[in-house]
């Protein structure tokens, strides 16, 4: 019968509900900083055992911490969260930034791409700028681009970090130091005093190595980056060739950066379609 659901469909429905519940729990804990587990169970109408299972998974992703009956937020303004959580945030803004970044990519270039979920949004559009050489330490990017025609992939090895799906460490930095790319496109966790910051020192070291090994450096930053803080300074915005922000970025930030001589591009709120190159037409 058409109303009957098979085992696979039922399992898919349970997984979708679990993901939606975990997202709601994450947002609640992040909004309040810390919530008791018994309160989460009451708030979401689930058993404490279910809350414990959800929190164990979220803790494994590096999003929340579970300790002594309390769930505590890790992805606060001072901490960068896992790529699983970040990939679902500011999706519209990230897409507009990614499309705006395509204006700075030309066929034949070699690109460094970082581990940010903002830069990840560029991947589906790179087929319109081929041939390209893409150099990255990001497993997610490698998996997305490995089947794209006319893209030469250079994967940077090292120690694998699950929370950002990237390889980092001394081996990675050594590999970067032996390369020179046309353009480096990156994002950052926070912007304070017109300086890019990141919470992870390992990530800062990789981004800095890519920055130093590229001729042109482009920063993608949605408006929320100006509201966050992080621990480690990376590089002043004035050192980038271009800073691309989204349309929701307050004018005060744009005007202040421009007054410092920073080349600021505001990505359109409704980005135009990506036009194919002459080879694709």
SSE order: HEHHEEHHEHEHEEEHEEEHEEEHE
For the CA atoms, what is the radius of gyration?
A: 20 Å
Mean pLDDT, as a whole number?
86
- Structure annotation, total helices: 10
Question: What topology emerges from the helices and strands here?
Answer:
Elements lengths: L6 H26 L1 E3 H8 L3 H13 L3 E4 L2 E4 L9 H4 L4 H11 L8 E4 L3 H4 L11 E5 L2 H7 L5 E5 L3 E3 L4 E3 L1 H8 L3 E7 L2 E3 L2 E4 L2 H12 L1 E8 L10 E5 L5 E4 L5 H9 L4 E3 L15
Parallel strand pairs: 4-5, 4-9, 5-6, 9-12, 12-14, 14-15
Antiparallel strand pairs: 1-3, 2-3, 7-8, 10-11, 11-13
Your description of this structure?
This protein has 281 residues and is of the alpha/beta class. Helix content is 36%, strand content 23%. It has ten helices and 15 strands. It has helices at 7-32, 37-44, 48-60, 83-86, 91-101, 117-120, 139-145, 170-177, 201-212, 251-259; strands at 34-36, 64-67, 70-73, 110-113, 132-136, 151-155, 159-161, 166-168, 181-187, 190-192, 195-198, 214-221, 232-236, 242-245, 264-266. The strands form four sheets. The protein has a seven-stranded parallel sheet with strand order 6-5-4-9-12-14-15, sandwiched between helices. It has a three-stranded antiparallel sheet with strand order 1-3-2. It has a three-stranded antiparallel sheet with strand order 10-11-13, covered by helices on one side. Residues 75-80 have low confidence and may be disordered.
